[in-house]
Amino acid sequence: MSTMFVEQGMMMDTSIGSFTIPPASLSTFNIISVILCVPVYDSVIIPIARKFTGKDRGYSQLQRMGIGLILSVLGMMAAAIVEIKRLQLARELGLVDQSVAVPLSILWQIPQYFLFGTAEVFTSIGQLEFFYDESPDAMRSFCSALSLVTSSLGNYLSSFILTMVTYFTTDGGKPGWIPDNLNEGHLDYFFWLLAGLSFFNLLVYVVCAKNYKQKKVS
Q1: What is the largest CA-CA distance in the chain?
Q2: What pLDDT digit, counting tens, does each position of 131-160 carry?
Q3: CA angle (212 as vertex; 211, 218 as ends), nearest 5
Q4: Whole-number Å distance between alpha carbons of 100 and 156
Q5: What is the pLDDT of residues 29-47, one digit of tens each?
Q6: Residue of 25, 73, 115, 176 with fewest CB within 10 Å of its CB?
Q7: What are φ and ψ of residue 102, in 5° steps?
Q8: Alpha-carbon Rg of the chain, whole angstroms?
Q9: Which residues on adjacent β-strands are paired with residue 15?
Q10: What distance in Å separates the CA atoms of residue 129 and residue 61, rounded to the nearest whole number?
């Protein structure tokens, strides 16, 4: 996600007046969304959810992670929509064969960064709580560490998906979805693919969450 967002930003208008925004610096909005979301989550969302569910935490960790997964799907869809608009402008201005930035402000990337930051607040924190609470009492530190393994495995899986996409889409000498010149590629297809995989992952997660039996309090 992060690498492709930066690649996308490099092919957009990074200037605001006389100031130029480094594409990689937009990940700051991911952090800002986390900083803003955490107090809002604790002071607003949890009290409201608590009134409806009667639960101390508002809702379970499994529900919290599910909300985060939904937000991550929306974040990838937002990235795909921005890319569709960028490629449309590239075609209209005759820039498809030129590896140059399209006059579309990089600030249009902010929503996708915000959505992923908010998703992180729900999923990552919920996941840590889940691994801690549901692990055997004597293995809580170890099981909390295991939750971080999912991130590393996700990075390996992401690299594998990118390799497969590059292999199959460049078959027969085609430029592929993610060529050096993104104006002649289809990075939007890649984002839609990830959105689809994320949605499928969400469905599998819902099935697993419904069949999960929580640990008895010891």
Answers
A1: 67
A2: 888 888 788 888 878 878 888 888 888 889
A3: 145
A4: 31
A5: 888 888 888 888 888 888 8
A6: 25
A7: -90, 140
A8: 20
A9: 20
A10: 7
3-state secondary structure of 119: helix
Average pLDDT over residues 125-129: 84
Cβ atoms < 10 Å from Cβ of 183: 21
What is the token pair recorded at 117?
A: 């930051």
Spell out the alpha helix ranges (H) of 11-109. 28-40, 46-53, 61-92
8 Å CB contact between 157 and 164: no
Strand residues in the chain grouped as ranges (E) = 12-13, 15-16, 19-20, 102-105
Cα three-residue angle 164-175-13, rounded to 5 degrees: 100
Q: What is the mean pLDDT of the chain?
A: 88
Alpha-carbon gap, residue 70 to 201, rounded angstroms: 10
In sequence order, the 6+-apart residues with CB closer than 8 A to the CB of 136 are 143
Nearest-10 Cα torsion for 13, 17, 23, 24: -170
